[in-house]
Write a structure and sequence with these properties.
Shape of chain B: globular
CATH topology of the largest domain in chain A: Ubiquitin-like (UB roll)
Number of helices of chain A: 6
Strand order of the largest sheet of chain B: 3-5-1-12-9-10-11
Shape of chain A: globular
CATH topology of the largest domain in chain B: Aldehyde Oxidoreductase, domain 3
Number of domains of chain B: 4
Strand content of chain B: 15-25%
Order of helices and strands of chain A: EEHEEHEHHHH
Distance between the termini of chain B: 66 Å
Number of strands of chain B: 28
Structural class of chain A: alpha+beta
Strand order of the largest sheet of chain A: 2-1-5-3-4
Helix content of chain B: 25-40%
CATH superfamily of the largest domain in chain B: Aldehyde oxidase/xanthine dehydrogenase, a/b hammerhead
Largest interface: A-B, 57 and 59 residues
Number of domains of chain A: 2
Structural class of chain B: alpha+beta
CATH class of the largest domain in chain A: Alpha Beta
Distance between the termini of chain A: 52 Å
CATH superfamily of the largest domain in chain A: Beta-grasp domain
Helix content of chain A: 25-40%
CATH architecture of the largest domain in chain A: Roll
Oligomer: heterodimer
Largest sheet of chain B: 7 strands, mixed
Largest sheet of chain A: 5 strands, mixed
Number of strands of chain A: 5
CATH architecture of the largest domain in chain B: Alpha-Beta Complex
Chain lengths: ~170, ~775
């Protein structure tokens, strides 16, 4: 057994886990953060993507002990109170989800993708970067649309903020 | 109310919980005292079980119990059944082999469960499952259905001699043979419809909870039809009487058919909960899903299509072998018969049709309905044959189809179906226009300059949805009725709850059903809640599959709304001292037409519950139930066009354009309908280019058992789609809805393969058309 201690969605948490415990199981079972999903056993589907120290990570590829000391954001920590994050809002507005099971991972991957492409995104880049997230419902059409829309919204938002700061 | 009612592109009400991670799936459920289960599964495709030694496993840390099939049988739990009776052409009933939820003395496919381990944690349950010592005596296995029919093949079930479940036929064989003999041209094809694994991203899961104090069971399960699950588990599997069994299907992460059926695991979890005294949860891992979810398709077909000298179809002859896997799943028997052969007329006038279908046991996972269920197989047979015929006859594929279209309605086909409405030429024209079909030859030339092979292919599909009426399907062998029920409750404060037997696992019922209510009662969408997926809350239901929730489920709501509206008008007329016929519903109010008298909904609702001043003899309350049984199937149809570019050096196919023009009848929410089409097309393209479930022919091992081995369509495999609709309302239900859930998966595979074969100039190509197959075909062509 090992002790782990990390910050999840801004809250300090700790626990004692079996050494083999994956980060995703620690989040779901120890912390009750069931928004992060498990869709496969081979780190292919991406339903479990969270942010670890600001980067998108498949939380089934990481042991809980490896994440000890890190700062983790899950889908539950993305919205600002009742205000949805622009990517969450874009998925809703563009019908970028159906059954909702892959959605948390899709959104966490997309937030990371948009952050890494401040210059903006095109359809080919979005499709390429979503390769590690599988959706069986939407055919990706509206997911791609949602990511592109969110990217635009966030670019406007950051320009707006930059102007205000200036 | 136009912004929220029928036809409005309303964003989904359910999305907030999904985008914030607040969805509640079975694996998210926690019950006090809950423990975890793992199943011990056969590593062999076919073997006798000689001995199961559980001692070592029982001694492992955290283990509560290890239970086997003998104990299950000892407690009287029944075998799984197939609920649709098919008779062979010799009049004998289908041959159903016994399927015990835990195998007792024989295993018949890799993944067949033999024991369940219940332990404190999931890890401990899995560790102990590894420690259960099962002594098997391996037998020869057979995975290919044609081989399973051959003499000397390994035999799976004593009940089914020669592994033959049924040998069924439909249509007039003599008329077909005569037409073929006198035809001006006959197109013949050998067609394989590849086996697929449905792969909902949420793996199957079950949580069984036996409450000793109440002698009552609760089952949380990943189901598309919780009421049917309760009915079947109660009536056939002897788990518990219906009044002692509650089945809850909460948020369910996709189904595509695979979550219609009742599987061994939910039965065993419920039984194990009673045996152990603790709630028992099991969640499949992805490899278990690959091994044990019901697979789809897997047909081998010989087809002959006869034409006269004017290129009109005179007959169609089809001979199909359908692989059923090791056991007959719940609705398996209906898929290659009444959901397949009855659709073989397609969009065409075909005077004579004959189909023969043999259903066969093999040592593979059970096969049942997967998105489209029989209709994709029928469409693939027809549309590959039409395209091939056009090439052989040297005519335009579009014009050959157009010449043979059904244009008069109603139209009785030679294979049961009576098409009620449609405009197939409208869909064809819309698709050809959207695809700029006329400009294809220029694009082909431009592609050739880049060293690419460009091809175009089309597919004109028809399907039958909203399978009904119940009496008709009963006469065809169905063990259930195919109606739907609804209850509409107008609460005393004027808010509304709709209880439906339909189940949403991605379809957006919480929005579309509410749109119908908002339209009818002229109330804001936010005041309407949809309740589904719980047998203790919802009266009864048949669930969601076969694109039936709009056509059948919403029609039941419509019927209940008729009753609510009639009663509300009576109350309003009484309260306002007006004539009932003068009451109109507008802007959330009941008004006396032509006057300024009006009452808001909540006042009428409140009056119905206070019951202080109701019309004489009227019962209090404003809550109505309806059961709706359709008078006919519905017939969505459309035309899909696919355009591809192939790199001859690598064999890689890129879909450069995909156009869908559908006729779904009336549409409640176009945004949701488009989403259904997108998803269906992706699955169809997956079948055509990427997906193929493979068993090793010698050992019967499943070699595609993970996402590393089975190619799921990913974002960079697909283009954005051009979708449109041109709709003819369905005459057989009050909303004019035909259904849209499966069309994409039905219409797309032949369009893709027609395009690929057009590009490479070789018609002999099986799905999935992987780069290796395409490259090999191109190499063979250059050698000729």
């Amino acid at each position: 057994m090992s002790d782990v201690s990390l910050v999840v969605n801004g809250r300090k948490v700790s626990g004692t886990v079996e050494d083999r415990t994956l980060l995703v199981h620690f989040l779901r079972e120890n912390l009750g953060l069931t928004g992060t999903h498990v869709g496969c056993d081979t780190s292919q589907c991406g339903a479990c993507v969270v942010h670890v120290d600001g980067k998108a990570v498949k939380s089934c590829t990481m042991l809980a002990v490896q994440a000890s000391g890190s700062t983790v954001t899950t889908i539950e920590g993305l919205a600002n109170g009742t205000d949805l994050h622009p990517v969450q809002a874009a998925f809703k507005e563009n019908h970028g989800l159906q059954c909702g099971f892959c959605t948390p991972g899709m959104i966490m991957t997309s937030v990371d993708m948009i952050a890494r492409h401040p210059e903006g995104l095109d359809e080919a880049t979005v499709r390429h970067e979503l390769e590690g997230n599988i959706c069986r419902c939407t055919g990706y059409h509206n997911i791609v649309k949602a990511v592109l829309a969110a990217s635009k919204t966030m670019a406007k938002g950051s320009k707006g903020r930059a102007k205000a700061a200036a | 109310m136009g912004v929220e009612g029928i036809g409005a592109r309303v964003a989904r009400k359910e999305d907030r919980r999904f985008v914030t991670g607040a969805g509640r799936y079975v694996d998210d459920m926690v019950v006090p005292g809950m423990k975890h289960a793992a199943f011990v599964r056969s590593p062999y495709a076919h073997a006798d079980v000689k001995k199961i030694d559980v001692k070592a496993a029982e001694a492992m840390p955290g283990v509560i119990a290890v239970l086997t099939g003998k104990q299950l049988k000892g407690d009287g739990i029944g075998n799984l059944i197939c609920g649709w009776m098919i008779h062979s052409k010799d009049g004998t009933p289908m041959k159903m082999g016994a399927w015990s939820p835990l195998a007792v003395d024989r295993v018949r496919y890799v993944g067949d469960a033999v024991a369940i381990v219940v332990a404190e944690t999931k890890g401990q349950a899995r560790d102990a499952a590894e420690a259960v010592e099962v002594t098997y005596r391996e037998k020869k296995a057979v995975v290919d259905p044609a081989r399973a029919l051959a003499k000397g093949a390994p035999q799976l079930h004593p009940e089914a001699e020669g592994n033959l479940i049924y040998d069924w036929e439909i249509g007039d064989g003599k008329a077909v043979d005569a037409a073929i003999a006198s035809a001006a041209h006959v197109t013949r094809l050998h067609i394989v419809n590849n086996r697929l694994v449905p792969n909902a991203i949420e793996p199957r899961a079950a949580l069984g909870h036996y409450d000793k104090a109440e002698d009552h069971f609760t089952c949380w399960t990943t189901s598309q039809n919780p009421h049917v699950a309760r009915l079947v588990m109660s009536a056939f599997y002897n788990v518990a009487p219906e009044n002692k069994l509650r089945v809850i299907a909460p948020d369910v992460g996709g189904g595509f058919g695979s979550k219609i059926f009742i599987y061994p695991e939910e039965i065993v979890c419920l039984w194990a909960s009673k045996r152990t005294g603790v709630p028992v949860k099991w969640v499949a891992d992805r490899t278990e899903s690959f091994m044990t979810d019901a697979h789809g398709r897997d047909h081998v077909t010989e087809v002959e299509m006869a034409f006269d000298k004017d290129n009109r179809i005179t007959a169609l002859k089809v001979d199909t072998i359908a692989n059923f896997g090791a056991y007959m799943s719940l609705f398996s028997s209906s898929v290659p018969t009444y959901l397949y052969a009855t659709l073989l007329s397609g969009q065409y006038n075909i005077p004579a049709i004959h189909a023969n279908v043999r259903a066969v046991y093999t040592n593979t996972s059970p096969v049942d309905a997967y998105r489209g269920a029989g209709r994709p197989e029928a469409t693939y047979v027809l549309e590959r044959t039409m395209e091939t015929a056009a090439r052989e006859l040297g005519v335009s594929p579009a014009e050959l189809r157009r010449k043979n279209f059904v244009t008069q309605f109603p139209h009785q086909t030679p294979v049961i179906m009576a098409y009620d409405a449609g405009d197939y030429a409208a869909s064809l024209d819309a698709a050809m226009k959207a695809a700029d079909y006329a400009g294809f030859s220029e694009r082909k030339k431009a592609a050739a300059k880049k060293g690419k092979l460009r091809g175009i292919g089309m597919s004109c599909y028809i399907e039958a949805c909203g399978i009904a009426p119940s009496a008709a399907v009963g006469s065809l062998g169905a063990g259930v009725g195919l109606w739907e029920s609804a209850e509409v409750r107008v609460n005393a404060v004027g808010t509304i709850e709709v209880l439906t037997g339909s189940h949403s696992h991605g379809q957006g019922h919480e929005t579309t059903f509410a749109q119908l209510v908002a339209q009818r009662l002229s109330v804001p969408l936010d005041t309407v809640s949809i309740v589904h997926g719980d047998t203790d809350k919802v009266q009864m239901g048949m669930g969601t599959y076969g694109s039936r929730s709009g056509a059948v489920g919403m029609s039941a709501v419509f019927k209940a709304l008729d009753k609510v509206e009639a009663k509300a008008k009576k109350i309003a007329a009484h309260l306002m001292e007006a004539d009932e016929a003068d009451i109109v519903i507008e802007n959330g109010e009941l008004k006396v037409a032509g006057t300024d008298k009006k009452l808001p909904w909540f006042q009428v609702a409140l009056a119905s519950y206070t019951a202080h001043n109701l019309p004489a003899g009227m019962e209090p309350g404003l809550k109505e139930t309806a059961f709706y049984d359709p008078s006919n199937f519905t017939f969505p149809a459309g035309c899909y066009i696919c355009e591809v570019e192939i790199d001859p050096d690598t064999g890689v196919t890129e879909i450069v354009q995909f156009v869908a023009a559908d006729d779904f009848g009336n549409i409640i929410n176009p945004m949701i309908v488009e989403g259904q089409v997108h998803g269906g097309i992706a699955q169809g393209i997956g079948q055509a280019l990427l997906e193929g479930c493979r068993y090793d022919p010698a050992s019967g091992q499943l070699v595609t058992a993970s996402y590393m081995d089975y190619t799921m369509p990913r974002a960079d495999d697909l283009p954005s789609f051009k979708v449109s609709t041109s709709n003819t309302p369905c005459p057989s239900n009050p909303l004019g809805i035909k259904g849209c859930g499966e069309a994409g998966a039905i219409g797309s595979p032949p369009a893709v393969i027609n395009a690929v074969t057009d590009a490479i100039g070789d018609n002999d190509l099986t799905m999935p058309a992987t780069p290796l197959k395409v490259w090999t075909a191109l190499k063979a062509a250059t050698r000729h």
